[in-house]
Amino acid sequence: MLGVVSIREEVRTFFEEQAALFTEGDLAALADYYELPLAVFTPDALLLETSVEDTIRAIGMTRTAAWAKGAVQVRCELLEISGDLAMRFPVRLRWHYEGADGRGVGVSEVIYYCASRANGSLAVQMVEIVKLAFPEVVAFLRAPPTEH
Q1: How far apart (Å, rounded) are the C-alpha atoms in residues 66 and 106?
Q2: CB of 136 closer than 8 Å to CB of 65
Q3: What is the pLDDT of residues 24-79, one digit of tens each?
Q4: What is the mean pLDDT of the chain?
Q5: Buried b (16+ CB within 10 A) or exposed e, 65-91
Q6: Which residue in 30, 41, 79, 134 has a CA-CA distance of 20 to 30 Å to 62?
Q7: pTM
Q8: What is the distance between the alpha carbons of residues 30 and 127, in angstroms, rounded to a whole number?
Q9: What 3 state SS string does the chain have?
Q10: Which of 57, 61, 63 is nearest to 20 (CA)?
């Protein structure tokens, strides 16, 4: 039982760290939590992130949309961890985007397929978005990036 509890806490910490980085806007550090290529399944599209820049762009667009709606922080709610924890395992989360007054401005529900890296740290290997707080982001992500 101790092993399951410690894995649950490790996973909770893994995603709480990501919530803090998202809130701070440290998108490059946040991108390190994901392995490439990264398949991202949305309710109406399959996106493939093949570079760190793709991942930063996707996270950045989500953050921009959340902040435009008044969010100033994001909080994760761990719903479920299942499967063989020694292999790739799904983690179901809700992301709560909250304004300065603590009220919610949006909620996303996502299943992350995680695995341990060779060094023992966790990594996200695939993402399935069940519910998007900001569905307009998918249209932006489907468009090719603009050159500056």
Answers
A1: 8
A2: yes
A3: 999 999 999 999 999 999 888 899 999 999 999 999 999 999 999 999 999 999 99
A4: 90
A5: bbbeeebebbbbebeebeeebeeebeb
A6: 79
A7: 0.89
A8: 14
A9: CHHHHHHHHHHHHHHHHHHHHHHHCCHHHHHCCEEEEEEEECCCCEEEECCHHHHHHHHHHHHHHHHHCCEEEEEEEEEEECCCCCCCEEEEEEEEEEECCCCEEEEEEEEEEEEECCCCCEEEEEEEEEECCCCHHHHHHHCCCCCC
A10: 63
The one-letter amino acid code at 65 reads A
Position 12, amino acid: R
Exposed/middle/buried for 145, CB within 10 Å: 0-12, 13-18, 19+?
exposed
Gap between the Cα atoms of 19 and 14, Å rounded? 9
Q: How far apart are CA 37 and CA 91, in angstroms?
A: 19
Tell me the C-alpha distance between 88 and 99, whole Å: 34
